[in-house]
Amino acid sequence: MAYRDEQLHEEKVFKDPVHRYIHVRDRVIWDLIGTPEFQRLRRIKQLGTSYLTFHGAEHSRFNHSLGVYEIVRRIIENFRHRPFWNEEERLLCLTAALLHDLGHGPFSHSFEKVFGLDHEDFTRRIILGNTSVNQILQRVSPDFPKNVADVIHKTYPNKLVVSLISSQIDADRMDYLLRDAYYTGVSYGHFDMERILRVMRPMEDQVVIKYSGMHAVEDYIMSRYQMYWQVYFHPVTRSAEVILSKILQRVKELYESGYEFHVKPVHFLSFFNQEVNLEEYVKLDEAVVLYYFQTWVDEKDPVLSDLCNRFVNRHLFKYIEFNPNLQLKQWAELQQLFKKAGIDPEYYLEVDSSSDLPYDFYRPGEEEERLPIHLLMPDGELRELSRQSDIVESISGKKRTDHKLYFPMDFIEGLSERSKIKKRILEILHG
Amino acid sequence: MAYRDEQLHEEKVFKDPVHRYIHVRDRVIWDLIGTPEFQRLRRIKQLGTSYLTFHGAEHSRFNHSLGVYEIVRRIIENFRHRPFWNEEERLLCLTAALLHDLGHGPFSHSFEKVFGLDHEDFTRRIILGNTSVNQILQRVSPDFPKNVADVIHKTYPNKLVVSLISSQIDADRMDYLLRDAYYTGVSYGHFDMERILRVMRPMEDQVVIKYSGMHAVEDYIMSRYQMYWQVYFHPVTRSAEVILSKILQRVKELYESGYEFHVKPVHFLSFFNQEVNLEEYVKLDEAVVLYYFQTWVDEKDPVLSDLCNRFVNRHLFKYIEFNPNLQLKQWAELQQLFKKAGIDPEYYLEVDSSSDLPYDFYRPGEEEERLPIHLLMPDGELRELSRQSDIVESISGKKRTDHKLYFPMDFIEGLSERSKIKKRILEILHG
Amino acid sequence: MAYRDEQLHEEKVFKDPVHRYIHVRDRVIWDLIGTPEFQRLRRIKQLGTSYLTFHGAEHSRFNHSLGVYEIVRRIIENFRHRPFWNEEERLLCLTAALLHDLGHGPFSHSFEKVFGLDHEDFTRRIILGNTSVNQILQRVSPDFPKNVADVIHKTYPNKLVVSLISSQIDADRMDYLLRDAYYTGVSYGHFDMERILRVMRPMEDQVVIKYSGMHAVEDYIMSRYQMYWQVYFHPVTRSAEVILSKILQRVKELYESGYEFHVKPVHFLSFFNQEVNLEEYVKLDEAVVLYYFQTWVDEKDPVLSDLCNRFVNRHLFKYIEFNPNLQLKQWAELQQLFKKAGIDPEYYLEVDSSSDLPYDFYRPGEEEERLPIHLLMPDGELRELSRQSDIVESISGKKRTDHKLYFPMDFIEGLSERSKIKKRILEILHG
Amino acid sequence: MAYRDEQLHEEKVFKDPVHRYIHVRDRVIWDLIGTPEFQRLRRIKQLGTSYLTFHGAEHSRFNHSLGVYEIVRRIIENFRHRPFWNEEERLLCLTAALLHDLGHGPFSHSFEKVFGLDHEDFTRRIILGNTSVNQILQRVSPDFPKNVADVIHKTYPNKLVVSLISSQIDADRMDYLLRDAYYTGVSYGHFDMERILRVMRPMEDQVVIKYSGMHAVEDYIMSRYQMYWQVYFHPVTRSAEVILSKILQRVKELYESGYEFHVKPVHFLSFFNQEVNLEEYVKLDEAVVLYYFQTWVDEKDPVLSDLCNRFVNRHLFKYIEFNPNLQLKQWAELQQLFKKAGIDPEYYLEVDSSSDLPYDFYRPGEEEERLPIHLLMPDGELRELSRQSDIVESISGKKRTDHKLYFPMDFIEGLSERSKIKKRILEILHG
């Protein structure tokens, strides 16, 4: 039998708290799960620094990747024998679902920002490069690795396949909303996924939703909205992320300035030099990053040591609402005051902005094209969701942005009571 | 106001998926949670290697410690104004609950076995030593640290206080059964904790259970039984633990033999020398251990490299039922065959035994004294649980033991097909 | 001890699937639960005809009444020692919560429509009249019955007390959303009630919500919106209700025309005569109504027999979207066609409209005054919810109305195939 | 297409809180659900008088019957293409599952006891008699009704089919344990049904369980044990049942003695005469019974009136542990004392016994043959469950029996304080 069609002698089952069981029958999927590249995802948290806000959020990307695979598996089980669906693309869908986050590194957001990386680029490189994953994909067929990479990169010609994993209601989002809600324990992320799966229908170039399932979709979009603002953008989480970015920035600066590290940032060198090769990249997991942070608590550079101590022992920055675009003068003054007080604003004063667009449809001329969700009406027509749903219409296209200023309140409180600088800083911060 | 009575301006709340919310009002508890020693528990998994079997089991001891605290808080909220209960011991109970696992290291079981350590000893040392935790406890009162340590060590005179945290139905067990069931996703660990809390009553030297709650307790004991055999003793988890112990054993041997490490086991030296000081101990968290394991994959010693590769990339040992006491001859022969095949049995052949006693009452003359669970009958009398419950009686005092043999099947399969050794090994293993 | 302060020797506990346990300590509450008037609520379904759509929705108003009591109990437990809260009004709140639905009859909606009744009026009459409930309330104090009735009727001077039971986020709504979701099994009605209870604060004339709980309230409002459209207004449920109303209408007409019933509508006579006394009212529970419907299946009047058969055996009317205001001509034509076909449109053709206003604030000059939900901002100010929440703002004040036409498709299909009437009816119905 | 193979144009789905969704594709199943005989099950509570103890337990047999159908549907979906399974018997299994409780009347237990009926006999008569159900079954094939009846009656030759619905781990039990736990809200009845369904395998004459699923089965048996003693045998429920039986007994006696009823027991006449025809039987649902009970509260016979009042308004009998076999003398004395006090012991003094055998295997020579649960071992052998499971072994074959005495405490308390009879009765009752 061809490798691509090989079935396991007995179905393998993973116990999963979110989907109850994850079922694997294909040899290819089983082999991919066993690769070092995929196992590495166990050492990268799904929600980065969120565990410092929600102590339950310690789950890994390994968890989530299995979940996305399982959702796609269930969707296409329902697609069998339906028009527009080509059973030949089943394995491609499952594989792309499983591997879609393969290139994520530890605390991706901060690393990407500081070192100018792109995890999607690394997903592609792992799939196409000299890796165990690639070897397995090659065995399926010579063009299979590229197809998988193209689906993940959204350039695969069959957009129906792409939309399973990347659209405004895809397996990726459904899994992470449910999963992150489960592990954090918040009550927001719930929606009736089983119902949504039952009303999904394949069409020429996308998955659409039967009209009768519209309310389940509304619920999903509301969940998404709440999870973004209550969990993903939580200011305590962002505070930890600000510190993390500052650590990376400081290490890079120290390295470039010739600073003598007590414990050298060996695993980071290629990042500093902007020439990250694949082998080095996959070695950098969260354990390694935390090892360095912990040892750097004892470095003599006071900024690095302090920032690492803050991250490791969770002494985070405080925050206030602050929009530097509207408060230009205060922003400039604060930087001056910090300098005068001997607190380097480069590392200790940061504005972080979060913004979210809970749902949108394509508007000609806009930069980022968002594939709208389409409802399949009883008469066979397709209709864009927000034209049918009052709730969705009301939030459609409405971008909300929050700006917050992060700073070490303990430093400010530690300034001399008589200091005018302290008084003035507090005046500005307390509005 | 005395520090011990200080209340937070506003109650702090942690979102917890198991108990929904964890409530903190006492300044002392809040300060303890903020210490580096307590935050360190975020970097130690509650279930060690279980995440390699149940991918959801990635939660930390930080999680569990907050949970035990919360359960004790709820129990003693119900105790207020009841006979035998002394509200003066409230803070002591809460503190002991919060800190009871403070001395746990990474993968404690293996470390304790290989290096002859005892995590309870370290809990004591952290509480009594020169630590942030100790400073806070000192502020409560000079004898407070010792009292907390004594409660955890079960030597505190008031046994009622001790039994909240250490008995056959204590806050520790109730939390870990519910929590581990939640994160693994298994359906076994559920019981009606709310009901049990409602029927707990303080007595002179123990917590007892009102008779009307007996069935909830039966359910709890069954949950415990199932969790032990289905989760805690799962052979795949034990396989990972066997490998972990072998890594530690190998590193120690290499170190003692003067082997030149590419990446030196700096953090382990005091462990090898059996002189672990507190400062070094608390630095060794799971991130550090995983950092070493990952770097040692590239060590030139083939055994160390192979074992680390197995652990990091989850290439575990296979297992069969095997009782070396009953199968002495095969045991000896297997060791010989492994040696002949060039597979060092010291590192690649191991028997691991699990045994559990789901419930027991004290029997005079026995080594380990187990405090029985007592029911408070409607007539005010106390009665040992198994005398009242058929179910509990039926499993009471029945120890069950499983023996399994672990070995690298891939090595054996890799032996030459013509080899008689291979054939004979497989014969023995397949019974 | 005064009766109003009497506590039960031991707390009584009801197992409740929604709130886990319902706790009763007050003798007055316990006595009220035991009255025939309250026990009667066991024989009246909470959701009327919804069980014909959602088979799980068989729960009674007894269930719900206990739930509302429990929620109020929890709210005011948090209010103790807070400003604006008067512990003297505790028992009044609990009693009003427990009894707020006491006057509901079977399938209230239809009975009220056909016979011009008002269940709130009967609640008042049971509380103030010659009943077991009244006797118990009298024992508390002579003015207690009136106070309870006034709270339920929203005329009690202390609006804080009123708002616990009647406002846009009261105990009544919170219980029914959670409870109806639980029993129907739909996934919409969930929101974090525990969080909402924690952020409720008493103020001078209302309960307000701390700003930090805004998102839980948004979730609650969305749940409400979804439950209305997915459950409460479900067209199959409305179809059963249409038939029920038609039965009542027919029985009344037959009675007034002197028809000789095989089984006389003894229990209905006072309803026909518009002089319903209390004693007769409380005797009419769902069992009695269903007894009549079942026996009337065998009545010789074909309309009554057919309608009863439809209700008892669930042969419901079909429905289409139809707005008679916009489709005046078709509406008139349909009625003509039905008459020609020998199907009395008075009983077999009905438009039913549902409309809902998910949230609104007071607008001067409007008929129905709706108390807005106020957020308590960090600076102590109060702010109307929709000014703070984008989501709520977007649906605030937006009334949505659905019109549906109900008719017996089986009758129409049973018309002769050659009939032009049949053809024309189907043309209109299929749009 | 043959009627037996007809599929619905679109799958029908029932929202179910226990199984989430119940799926119907077969036209035959859909038609059966629509019959008056099946719809009648909506008017019969699954747990009889349990709602007077657990207010949530108001669900009907309609609910449960759909649930059993759904479980069988899922089981045999897994059986397809497996040895021993004949897809030809699919519809038979589904139909028997759906209809297995069709003959249940209101409060079956009491009716069967007082009037010597057997609900299984009525199930058979409805299936084979002149009913809508029978017409549908006839359309499938002339012998189909008999086959369905035989499966339910356990006389069908293929025991594999029988065991799906009647064995110690069948769809009937799995559904009622989960469902009754859900509606009562107790935490006992949970077990991992999904896992059990996955490990069920068809064999020659029974369904067996793969060894790897043994622990899920242990959990199921423990759930069963707890549900029996905590829910089904709850003494408050039994108290209501005792009263119910006494009402039926009294009505019968009054009827036979020529008593003139104010409201005649028309629906009961054939029951008194022991000649219940099918038509009359299916008319007697719970609404009808409750209608009579309510009207009989006003009957002039004081016993009937009192008993009906007790049932309708939940003034139940109290109870104590009492074994008349061991306490013969007290039993006789109590009856004398009651007579002297003017309380008819025939109606006001009753011993009720409950006994349960949580699991058993066949023991030669025993009256009731119980099909044991067999495990399918890895080597292909079958093994009786209790030989493999310590837990099950420990409770296997152990029958537990409880005896309770029920009596109207309010009557006794109402006796004159000076009465020696009262004193003596209380002495005996209080042991």
UniProtKB/TrEMBL annotation, chains A, B, C, D:
> What are the residue boundaries of the HD domain, all occurrences included?
61-177
Q: Output the SMART domains linked to this UniProt entry.
A: HDc
Alphabetical list of CDD domains matching this protein: HDc
Give GO MF terms, alphabetically.
dGTPase activity
SUPFAM superfamilies per the UniProt record, alphabetical: HD-domain/PDEase-like (SSF109604)
User: Tell me, which GO biological process terms does this entry list?
Assistant: dGTP catabolic process
InterPro entries referenced in this protein's UniProt entry, alphabetically: dGTPase-like, HD/PDEase_dom, HD_assoc_2, HD_domain
Q: Which protein is depicted?
A: HD domain-containing protein
Higher taxonomy: Bacteria, Bacillati, Bacillota, Bacilli, Bacillales
